Amino acid sequence: MIWSRNSTPLVEQKQKLTLLDMKFAVNYSTPLKNLIEQGKVKVDLLKCPEWDGIVNAARLYGQVYVHFEISVGANNIQKLNFALIERFLHTTSTPHLNIHLSNHPILEEVTQENRKALFRNWKEDIACLRSQLPGVKIIAENLPWHEFLPQLKMAADPELINDLIEECDLGLLLDLSHAQISAQAFGIDFKDYVSKLPLHRLAELHITGIREYANFPTDHFELQPQDWPVINWASEQIKSGAWREPEIVAFEYGGVGDVFCWRTEPLPLQEQVPLLYQIFS
Questions:
Q1: Tens digit of each residue's pLDDT (9 = 90 or more) over 83-117
Q2: Domain 10-279, what architecture?
């Protein structure tokens, strides 16, 4: 499996990592589309939600991959439109099926019993996905925990995430902003938090800026000055071979719909996308 640990010497590992052809993606948005048309930015992939209208619009400006709104552990896996998911997996440049490691409020209290129940729920949901979509590679994303999202405290535990990914043979979708927010809530160093995750299984990396919004640290903003050292550190980990080279690095600034359109401006895209493309190319 591509996620397995490798005892090959580091130099040879680095040579193999370059063969994965890491691609740089950005959330599709009208401002991004305009900049692409004007030749002011370049991306390898356009990251889209699972909406036909947006996917079809984005296809006109480049290769598209879909980021699915699939949450395991939240007691809603049976409500998924598996035919839609399968269609997008086969008709776009989506290399894997992403899932979000979530939780249900009934398991909000952090106890050993609830921890085992959450782990069991995650495994059952993943088994359901594999029964409906056999042979599809699945990658798991870490969600952010803070006081506003108390049910995610256990779901954001890096050791629990590591155990699930290893036991279920998944890839890791590392969201750097989510990891920073969770590490702050846990009161631990961000790099220590990340080190507990199975970085030899890294398949996709998400980056965004973090700002205080409604009194909570919130992601999906343009990169702030304090975000760049984290970005450069992550790039160094990949290029050194300390982390597996992911198939995709996605800048999740901007987008479509009520959640993203109000914080989508052309200037940050014009300034930051070329810099990030250079860093991760």
A1: 999 999 999 999 999 999 999 999 999 999 999 99
A2: Alpha-Beta Barrel (3.20)
